[in-house]
Amino acid sequence: MTIDRDRVPVEEWITRRFAVASGRSGELLWSRYDRADVVESIGDGELAVATDDFDAADVFFRTWRVVDADTGSEGRALVTRFGRSLLGYDGRRLIFAGAPDAQQEPNIPRLSAFDGRSAAQRWEIEPVHDYSATWERAGRGLYLVGAAGYGPGWISRYAD
Question: Which residue, of 25, 63, 80, 115, has the fewest CB within 10 Å?
């Protein structure tokens, strides 16, 4: 996602702990026991922390939280399924691509935004009916890239 030179997320798989270390001195700023499977820097002093689970029918669930890298405080949890992947964070909202209930179709080009603190869904759009199209990040922008059969490809930009 982004690189935060002052705060570096650290994961310890054996002890199931994650921490934040100083990028300048290397010392741990804080740590806690948490079954985090993904810890990524997503913005100015914030982390996206995800935990993966399966239910009795082997349906995959991923629980996302936005965590303050300075204090470890976190917002409410947001649960997604296999078909949704985190594309980015704009400082207020987590932006996901994919279908909300898909278990085996992660490439449906739908965008969804959820508040990073309250986990409330803010909006969802499905701009095209070309399921072969994919959302790509380039700098601070999102681009929908696709191709129609054997014809020329196309690209469109998401604008906030």
Answer: 25
128-to-48, 54, 125, 131 alpha-carbon distances in Å? 28, 31, 9, 8
82 and 58 Cβ atoms separated by less than 8 Å: no
User: Minimal CA–CA distance to 84: which of 94, 93, 69?
Assistant: 94
DSSP string, the chain: ----SSEEEEEETTTTEEEEEETTT--EEEEEE---SEEEEEETTEEEEEEEEE-TT--EEEEEEEEETTT--B---EEEETTEEEEEE-SSEEEEEE-SS-SS-TT---EEEEETTT--EEEEE---S-TT-EEEEETTEEEEEEE-TTS-EEEEEE--
Confidence (pTM): 0.75
* 12-16, 67-71, 95-99: least confident range: 12-16
Give the pLDDT confidence of 105-127 residue by residue, as tens digits. 556 678 889 998 899 999 988 76
